[in-house]
Amino acid sequence: MTSNGGFAPVFCTIVPPHVLDKLAQHEDPALSGPARRSLEHDAYQRTRRRLTTVIGAPAVTPPAQAVNGKPHRTIYDAGHTQDLPGRKVREEGSEPGADATVNRAYAGLGATFELYQKVYGRDSIDGQGLPLNASVHFGVDYDNAFWNGEQMVFGDGDNEIFLDFTIPVDVIGHELTHGVTQHTANLAYFGQSGALNESISDVFGSLIKQYALGQTAEQADWLIGAGLLAPRVHGTALRSMKAPGTAYDDPRLGKDPQPATMDGYVHTGRDNGGVHINSGIPNHAFYLVAKAIGGHSWERAGQIWYDVLTGGKLPTYASFADFAKLTVRAARKRYGAGDELEAVQKAWEQVGVRTP
Question: What sign for the dihedral angle of Cα 275, 278, 282, 284?
């Protein structure tokens, strides 16, 4: 919740604008066409999101099935249009159908709900059993996935650079976590607070993937969007939390611009002040914390981050230093002066962010 007591949901996409901008300038229309259409779609949705914020979105009342820690998922097929939500194709409890994209979306919503409910005791993304709705097959060759403040939306990709956006479960978890942030700290989507907003989604997106696979911090790949890039692309994912700046290096996409420390912090007016770029710094800090603590990252490391996100102390326009200080306090409060506190302090020091 914002300092003035209201929610200000924003339009958040998994693929950064600078990536689509690069593709939109390519001489090959098979690459530039889908990228340009995707940018146009995003601009339209961003404007719609702003209007909804001003006018006010209709309240969503959780149905009976959504209470008591049970998910209530509905998947729609947009039919390659921009009309949302589209035709209902699967609802809670129904059997899988022939459309793998529908099935993956349904499973990804469930994996996200499960982590938040079983690990952190949170009933859906708003904590009150909010129904989880998603639309698949959005647009034509749409190169993105997004949370629009009300639901999830997935494109099919262009099959030249990006594949189906329901493939990586961490992408689904990332976007739904924007909803969690919207209903808790509601971090402003600009500058360092916006980079924290993006980083928190990467953190919990990665934790959702690790939880679903039963992986330890050592076993996890710490990649965001692994499996999303088409085979011809020189890269492994959209972002790397373990090694920011190494996720891709492709003549069509360019080189991954994320810094791992404050020495590489990018000052820019694009992408809301570089929210998808500078998020590499707090991303790397979390990776260092999780690796130092060991075991399952969603337990102690994830708990510290969740405590800060939901603790009511994080300013809407928080800086990296604000967030770092609160993680130190959260670690000390929950675990005392032990390995967890030391891991948090050392991680932020290593990425160049000061803590008390």
Answer: positive
Active site residues: 175, 276
Please report which confidence band the pLDDT of residue 10 belongs to, taking 50, 70 and 90 as the band edges: low
Backbone phi, then psi, for 12, in 5-degree steps? -120, 125
Paired strand residues for 229: 162
Q: What is the CATH number of domain 12-183?
A: 3.10.170.10
Residue ranges covered by each domain of the chain: 12-183, 191-350
Nearest C-alpha neighbor of 126 from the set 135, 137, 117, 136: 117
CA distance to 175, 195, 236, 275, 316, per residue, from 223 (Å): 15, 17, 8, 18, 27
What is the CATH class of 191-350? mainly alpha
Can you say how many angstroms the Cα of residue 106 is from the centroid of all Cα atoms in its chain? 17
pLDDT bucket at 48, cuts 50 / 70 / 90: low
pLDDT digits (tens, 9 = 90+) for 251-286: 999 999 999 999 999 999 989 999 999 999 999 999
